[in-house]
Write a structure and sequence with these properties.
The chain is mainly alpha-helical and about 290 residues long. It has helices spanning about 1-10, 35-50, 70-80, 95-105, 110-115, 130-145, 155-165, 170-185, 195-205, 215-235, 240-245, 250-260, and strands spanning about 20-25, 60-65, 90, 150-155, 190. Helix 3 links the parallel strand 2 and strand 3. The protein is elongated, with a radius of gyration of 35 Å.
């Protein structure tokens, strides 16, 4: 919700579209330059002067400033350092300013112009109590744009909203509400109006992710070796010499492995089990 909050702050108390903040995105679009944005700000200041507005009403919104190239940061800093250039600035980033300085994603000089006050927003997952209010606000926005009057959401829809993790935060909530309101027929949004991908994500969360089982190589190979020795001994009916031949190893090595695995053969059933205490042990052999 960083962008939503930033735009709300910069646009208040103005509603005139000519007073909306100039926006720079950290990942500049093809052909977009810092000069273009600053030029728009100058033109907006002229508009403000002509309409008797305060010069400090000009504002700049920098989205994801941590993605702005170092050269672009230096270029932006040059404009901000110009004298008699009052402007309100709000920048958004995925990490706190001090972390951006540590990683080198933000220059120290530019930081001085944007870090007077910092607002940290928790992800939507950690403030679920806001979900109904935010969803209602997005629904009312959609009502105005589509001239539809949906009153709200069914109880089942809100329960799904509470259940979801919202990895994309407010942008995702807004998108889902807009898509649902577009297809809604009745007076409220119901589960059937929600996008298929959202419902599929809910099902995936309920099923849970399959955790990958780690393979302990030594333990796995030991179990395989024990199984092969057991099979050979059963086939040889307890004859170690013949079992060693079947395995392609020496008789002495087989004896050591049998002792190591504590393999015992029940001569009555032909079963092998290291836990059978009353089984008949193999004959002891001289070295």
């Amino acid at each position: 919700g960083k962008e939503h909050l930033a735009r709300t702050i910069l646009q208040w108390p103005h509603r005139d579209p000519n007073l909306m903040p100039e926006t720079i995105r950290g990942c500049l679009a093809d052909g977009q330059t810092i000069q273009d944005s600053i030029k728009s700000i100058y033109e907006r200041r002229i508009f403000l002067q002509q309409n008797g507005e305060s010069l400090d009403s000009a504002s700049l919104l920098i989205l994801d400033i941590d993605e702005l190239e170092t050269s672009a940061q230096s270029e932006l800093l040059g404009f901000l350092m110009l004298p008699d250039f009052p402007i309100r600035i709000i920048a958004t980033a995925k990490q706190p300013v001090h972390r951006l300085l540590e990683t080198g994603d933000l220059t120290e000089e530019l930081t001085k112009y944007i870090s007077t006050q910092m607002i940290e927003l928790e992800p939507l997952l950690q403030r679920r109590e806001d979900i109904p209010l935010l969803a209602q606000a997005f629904l009312e926005q959609s009502n105005r744009s589509r001239k539809k009057q949906l009153a709200g959401f069914s109880k089942s829809v809100l329960e799904l909203f509470f259940e979801f993790d919202w990895p994309e935060n407010l942008d995702q909530l807004k998108r889902i509400v807009e898509n649902a309101s577009e297809v809604a027929i009745g007076s409220i949004v119901v589960v059937e109006n929600l996008p298929d991908e959202f419902l599929q994500s809910i099902n995936a969360l309920r099923i849970g992710r399959n955790t990958e089982e780690k393979i302990q190589l030594d333990e796995f190979l030991a179990k395989v070796e024990q199984e092969l020795i057991q099979r050979a001994l059963i086939q040889a009916k307890g004859n170690k010499t013949k079992a060693a031949e079947l395995l392609g190893i020496s008789r002495a090595k087989l004896i050591r492995r049998v002792d190591s695995f504590q393999i015992r053969l029940d001569l009555d059933t032909g079963n092998l089990d290291s836990k059978i205490h009353d089984a008949v042990e193999f004959e002891e052999l001289d070295s």
